[in-house]
Amino acid sequence: MVSTTASQDRAIDAAVRAAEAVGAPEEAIALDEQQLAARIASPVFRCGVFFRDGATVQPARLVRALRREILGAGVDLYEETPATGIADGVVTTPGGRVHAAAIVVATNAAASGWRPVRRHVTNFGSYVVLTEQVPELLGEIGWTGNEAVVDGRMFLHYFRTTDDGRVLMGSGTGPIGFGGRVDRRFTSDAASAGRAERGLRRLLPGLAAARVERAWGGPIDVSADHLPFFGTVPGTGIHYGLGYSGHGVGPSWLGGQILASLAFGLDDEWTRLPLATRRVPALPPEPLKRLGGGLVRAAIMACEQAEEEGRRPPFAARAGAAVPRLLRMEIGTR
Ligand SMILES: Cc1cc2nc3c(=O)[nH]c(=O)nc-3n(C[C@H](O)[C@H](O)[C@H](O)COP(=O)(O)OP(=O)(O)OC[C@H]3O[C@@H](n4cnc5c(N)ncnc54)[C@H](O)[C@@H]3O)c2cc1C
């Protein structure tokens, strides 16, 4: 994780302190400007923290490997089959109904308008751009260690290299959804892709000559406190897990263990985890969720942009960004 503004330094400090607090300081090693530059040279990186346990995966390959495994285990897999309705014991699809004692709803942003969970989650867009192959430029800025990086913004940039020498730069500044609807704004919002590219240019000016070849986006399921949650609709065999808040590739493995135990009705180390037992903070109902969330999003984005440009954020933006904290809500808290 890197900081590029004074206010982002707080996120770095918080990560280092959190690791110390749980007695694992070796898991979050503070990096000063020179130590950071030895890994990746950028004139805007101030300081950082190195998580030695980090890794990257190519998510499409992960999905294909999972598919191979479950087919190998003899599981019937029906792809391109949308569930159009769920009741206790029955899933409806366009071609027929499936009867099952246990049903697991793990459809990410598509579930965010579903009554049992909709007060705890909302959708935001996340967008990425991918450069052409630039291994020589990566060599010039010293980014040869395959580090995956995020900055300390709330609407963060996330970036990584690929095995074939490209850079992927993401921006969590996509639009906010309404009522759980997943529409084209989540997959074809040029403004959000533009912000990802501007992030690439600002954060890594040494890659100025790298052409962007692809851009894409999708919805993420943001929970009220940015942590995933798991549970069972009371009195039914319908279980759910969502709220990964744009960080689900690793944690959905843990989610799979929890959901498997819930589906088998077990009371074990997985179902007793706080992620499955805590009280999940609530968001306001629609249209307040969309209106309030949209205002706070715009205010925080204005603050973060001003800080990156070395300006003091305008008063209205600072006031808007402070609202969640005043209401003691986790969401939107920087
Ligand atoms: C642009 C972008 C970049 C991201 N970058 C990162 C990252 O760097 N690191 C990270 O950890 N996470 C990242 N994420 C988030 C990550 O993709 C998710 O957190 C993760 O995939 C969640 O896993 P899941 O199994 O809950 O949902 P998914 O992987 O989304 O799987 C849900 C499945 O449900 C299916 N589905 C939906 N509706 C229905 C229906 N009605 N009937 C049947 N099937 C249905 C979908 O087709 C999909 O296959 C990113 C997301 C986006 C959009």
Can you give a write-up of this model?
It is a single chain. With 334 residues, this protein is an alpha+beta fold. Helices cover 31% and strands 20% of the residues. It has helices at 9-21, 33-39, 59-72, 135-140, 190-203, 251-263, 274-277, 288-308, 315-326; strands spanning 2-3, 29-31, 47-50, 85-87, 90-93, 96-99, 103-105, 121-131, 149-150, 157-161, 167-171, 212-223, 229-232, 238-242. The strands form four sheets. The chain has a five-stranded antiparallel sheet, covered by helices on one side. Helix 8 (288-308) crosses helix 9. The longest helix is centred in the C-terminal third of the chain and has 21 residues, at 288-308. It starts with a strand and ends in an 8-residue tail after the last helix. The model has no long low-confidence stretch (mean pLDDT 94). Bound molecules: flavin-adenine dinucleotide. Flavin-adenine dinucleotide (FAD) binds next to strand 8 and strand 12.
Task: Describe what is shown at a glance.
This protein is α+β, with helices and mostly antiparallel strands. The chain is built from nine helices and 14 strands. 31% of the residues lie in helices and 20% in strands.
